[in-house]
Input
Amino acid sequence: MLRRLYDRTMRLAAHRHALPALAVVSFVESSIFPIPPDVLMIPMCLADRRRSFWIATVCTVASVIGGFLGYAIGYYAFEAVGRPIIDFYGLNAKLAEFRQAFAEYGWWIIVIKGATPIPYKLITIAAGVAQFPLLEFAGASVISRGMRFYLVAALLWWFGEPIRTFIEKRLTLVTTVAAVLLVGGFIVVRYLF
Output
């Protein structure tokens, strides 16, 4: 069953509509959607390594544009939309701390945390709540998201075939580790931030 799912994912990653789907996922992940675009980006890069940097470009641009939606949610609609998202991650109590940190280190928070697996929507919404300067937000977002997606693309471009072979030989192990990391990421966000 896992092998069929993997084969189907690789076929979908090579589909002509995969890139627009990645753009949509990258956009909504920056503001409301809980699943990171890496879930699509990695199979797409493995399916066609030559397009890795174009895939990273689409992912970066869509993510930054989606970040403006997250910022707008924090700035204009925090109580109606932003608070439920923050509550979902269990970070409501930390919001005051985050707001203060943004006042002092906002640009660095966006650059550093935006490049990590921490859900980017938390950063975009918090930037809006803190009314962080929009131009600085845009610049920091381009840097952080670009670093993240281009690093993944570069690694998959450089090591693509060996990684694909490793995944295909150890599919159950890779899937288990990915699931543990995904769940672990939610736990880390919920209890450490």
